[in-house]
Amino acid sequence: MGNQNCHAEIIFDDGVKWLARLRLAWTISPPALVFDWSCGLDPTIAIGVDYILQAKLDGKPLDWPSARPEQREKIMQQLADVCLELEKHPFDFIGSLVTVDRNPASPNGHNSPYDIKVNTYLAHRSRLHVMEALFESHKPTDQFFLIHPDDKGDHILVNDAFDITGIIDWEWTRTASKAEAFSSPCMMWPVGKFYDGSKDFSPAERRFADIFRQRGRADLARYVEDGRKVQRFFFGLGTEGAYDDENTFAALFMGLRRTFGFEDVEWAVWKKRELERARDARHS
């Protein structure tokens, strides 16, 4: 179940099963159905690591790429139910649910090579220009909603009949705008095309939008259909490795510009032009 936790099954004499979930690094809050937990490396806990003792959920992680069409359909119908339930529980703030005294690792941090810092800075400047267009098709509200931080598919537990038995790995969950929270989960994205800079949608994403529309929720369908802008903006420039690989960095960044309707030029051409503009502005 991911690489952030160690799991141990505890079986009692009466057949009841618990799951000991030991955090490999750090955790922010316990999930539901918790019997005991420790957060923050409590010095009074002899084990010395964060842990959660929780009821074990039946099921296994969903393998979305291998699921058959009828199995995907069943999962999407249930995910629509989950979205409709989450919509009933808005928050009045945006961002993290907790405050921590830890600085997250950054791929463009102090020890990053010069070229990576330059690329990141230029991309950041460009993203500032698209912020006004980010939610132009959606009316802003003062309500925000939970969004799963790692919705690539294996966060969903299913049984053999593809009934969802649970959704796990909420450690880094946060609240977001409705447009972001109800856009399609990344497990439905055409990932290869996404990293190549394409703005295409997958058949699963289009079907997910249709499900909402069939349920009389055209508003949620539009969040799915318009989701690529907000996804590309907040996805940033991919995982940390994307900063080290300029080809991946360039493809993701140009995909962001393409999604917002900017001039479709090669990364090297755009970068040279932006550096010249920055130099001219500095000397003017």
UniProtKB/TrEMBL annotation:
Gene3D superfamilies: 3.90.1200.10. SUPFAM superfamilies: Protein kinase-like (PK-like). It comes from the Eukaryota. This is Aminoglycoside phosphotransferase domain-containing protein.
